[in-house]
Amino acid sequence: MYFEAVRSERGCVSYLIGCEKTCAAVVVDPLDDQIDRYLALTASRGMRIRYVLDTHTHADHFSAVRDLRDRLGAPSIMHRSSPAPFVDIHAEDGETIIVGELRLNLLHTPGHTRDSMCVILPDRVLTGDTLLLGGCGRTDLPTGDPEALYESLFQRLLRLDGSLLVYPAHNYKNLEPTTLDEQKKTNPRLRKTERSEFVEMMRNLSMAMPDHLTEALRTNQTGGMTVSQIIQEAAERISFMTMTELRRRIDSGEPGVHILDVREVDAYAVGHIPGAVHLPRGQLELRIDSMFPDPTVRILAYCEFGKISTIAAGTLHTMGFLGAIALDGGIRAWKEAGHPLEAAPPAAG
Q1: I want to staple 64 with a disulfide (CB 3.0 to 4.6 A). Which of 30, 107, 128, 142 is the partner?
Q2: How far, CA to CA in Å, does 153 sit from each of 111, 112, 144?
Q3: CATH topology classification for 2-224
């Protein structure tokens, strides 16, 4: 069996598991920023990803299950209680996924989320966020339930073979895997063996909410796009102009582009790039035709940081303004670089 733990800077861990005899592989809890790494690892070993599996609906990062499924044609697997519409195999407790000659046995372990499950291999268990090294999954996020987590831990997971090594979906301190028996002895969360004490402990953890909680749940539950994906998709349709090049053109008196500020009106009035006209992003589709009747003109969009203007330029390109481009960076970086600003009421407001 080929087994590779793929770690991210955020402490998330995904697993690439392959049958070395048949070259079939599965990725468990894939991360959206590690897709190229999975593909490179499997290619280097002559393997092909046959399945993608999430142990639960993630709330603190963006899953790559849908992207890998669509790109590779590999069926996606989650527990049947998962709300995600892109799931192909809705697995039940006790079922098995066959990858080449490997058998991955599934154990439903609700508590951290309703759809949490663990993946059991001959010598190890992938515990998702049900059991962590020195901890366990929180239960204060949507569909979390401390009573269910108690049952999953003490009545199900911890009754497996104690020699199984624990591989969780988060490992913030890069700890080495230990066995279930070792976790029983050393994990402080597992010292509360009485149901009422465990439930009380979980309900009083007072942990900070994950960054991007709403966005992660939205995309992981529905298959919708993340903001970064929207920006990346727009960026792939357009070109960019550096601040140095724009400054050179402005100084020459022949910018060769119509400079479009897509920020809000107050920000534009305080200070904008010389010669820029104003059209807030929220009105772009409705007013762009009246501002620029000629769709062949070159339009350079900019905003505060360069993200909204990238989306705006991509939208203009989709609408038929094929000369739409974006500033590489935003006006914040423009000001920090010492480039000039104008302050005046909006020219096209």
Answers
A1: 30
A2: 9, 11, 14
A3: Metallo-beta-lactamase; Chain A (3.60.15)
Interior/surface letters 89-98, b for 16+ CB within 10 angstroms, e for the rest: eebeeebebe
- Identify the CATH homologous superfamily for domain 229-336: Rhodanese-like domain (3.40.250.10)
Q: Are 13 and 171 in contact (CB under 8 A)?
A: yes
What pLDDT does residue 124 have? 98
β-strands 13-18, 24-28 pairing: antiparallel
The whole-model pTM stands at 0.78
Averaged over successive runs of 10 residues, the pLDDT of the chain (349 residues) comes to 94 97 98 96 97 95 94 97 94 97 98 97 98 96 96 98 98 95 97 96 89 83 87 95 97 95 95 96 96 96 97 97 96 96 66
Phi (first) and psi of residue 145, to 5 degrees: -155, 110
Number of continuous H segments (helices) and E segments (strands) in the chain: 12, 18
